[in-house]
Amino acid sequence: MTSTTADVIDTLVGITSGSKLDAIRAQRSEARKHAQASYLGLFEPRDPGGVSTGERLAVASFVAGLHGELQTDAFYASRLAPGIRAAIAAEVAAAKTQGPYGSYPKGPLSVENTVGPVYRVAEASRAALGKRLVAAFEHAHMLVFHPRDAAAPSLQALLDAGWSTTDIVTLSQLVAFLAYQIRVVAGLRTLARSL
Amino acid sequence: MTDKTLTPPPHTEPVVFTRDMLDWLPWIEPMAEQDMTERHLASLVDASRVKSPYFRLLARDPDVLEARTRTDKDIFYNPEAGLPRAERELAAAATSRLNGCIYCASVHARFAVTYSKRVDDIQRLLDEGVGAKLDERWEAIVDASVALTALPITFGPQHIDRLRAVGLDDAAIADLIGAASFFNWANRLMLSLGEPATQG
Q: Quick one: CATH architecture of A8-193?
């Protein structure tokens, strides 16, 4: 895979060549290289299969928005059309909450159950997003804020909206990868300020 | 053909955090071994993973699985410098405990015990959660993992200061950030694509 996209984590943190953090990241060169390869596999895939680049970027922008990470959000949103960006911004504002919450299997852990919202895309945004993205956003919100509430019917909702089993794997990886990338960026940015 | 979710076979669901070995049952169809191309098989990185329904499911997107796995291995297994491996596993177990991934917590609690030999502390983390009394260094590591996992993310300079005070250098702090962040990836896959089951 050849890509000219610079290391996204370095870009978002602001790590420059020869800096202290550059040297620290170099000690985990495989992790650095393959975090970037994960990004490329998700956002510049050799074969996009059943999930279009537009869908990938729309979900990424929504997920970054839910995390409240403005720079990461802007990074993904900048490649989207204005119409869908407005719909995503409206949904982020309506959907943003605190996490992680959710329920455990019935038993001793039930005392730790914490209730939070179950998000549904607003009627006004449904047309701009389309059926597949509506289902993807509702699933992504659960993955971001209350992943322990996931159950087989969550995946059935995606299948019903036209996502194949393989598409669901890609979508799940995309949301889960962003949960990683956004935290690494936030963490390293905090570390960078103290070096 | 329209894809369908799977109904897992009869099994017993674990209802507590445990160090026991667990199984994992997928909710959507993993690839059949005989349908996997060389590219799919290579994406597993470890050939033995072809027996795992989890990895055969993720192999449906092989480039992403391979990159995910190689990221994981360097964060957790690279023995050079940084955070001791026991404490990378502690961060993984604490993150899994907070997100509620019983399966992930079981695996990484076992690894944390293997490397640290601190079975009582790890069991207390599983039993009581991320507020469990450990020692100052381990509590600093657990708190930093929690702050990176919570939304909004609350990880700040006070966490860095506390980690430095208990002896972590910059490379070790970067490892902690990598380990806790990575489990926010792993937990979401394990929790949302299938469910754990007790063995035997």
A: Up-down Bundle (1.20)
Interface of A with B in 7-66 (CB under 8 A): 20-21, 24-25, 27-31, 33-35, 37-38, 40-42, 45-46, 49, 66
Q: Examine the domain organization and report whether B89 and B64 are in the same domain.
A: no
Neighbouring residues of B95: CB distance < 8 A, sequence distance ≥ 6? B145, B146, B148, B149, B179, B180, B183, B184, B187
Report yes or no: A97 and B4 within 8 Å, Cβ to Cβ. no
Q: What is the pLDDT of residue B165?
A: 98
pLDDT digits (tens, 9 = 90+) for B56-89: 999 999 999 999 999 999 999 999 999 999 999 9
| Mutation for testing the A interface, residue in B70, B98, B185, B190 having most A CBs under 10 Å | B185
CA distance A79 to chain B (A): 21
Provide the domain count of chain B: 2
Q: How far is A80 from chain B (nearest CA, A)?
A: 23
Rounded Cα distance, B91 and B141, in Å: 7
- Per-domain residue ranges for chain A? 8-193
Residue B141 belongs to some domain of the structure? yes
pLDDT of B200 reads: 77
Query: What average pLDDT does the structure give for chain B?
Result: 97
- DSSP alpha helix (H) spans, chain B: 38-43, 53-58, 62-77, 85-99, 102-116, 119-128, 136-149, 157-165, 170-193
Which has the minimum average pLDDT: A8-12, A69-73, A124-128, B158-162?
Answer: A69-73
Confidence grade of residue A4 (pLDDT, cut at 50, 70, 90): confident
Q: Torsions phi, psi of B169, nearest 5?
A: -90, 180
For residue A2, name the pLDDT band (cuts at 50, 70, 90). Answer: low
Residue B102: domain span: 82-185
Gyration radius (Cα) of chain A, Å: 18
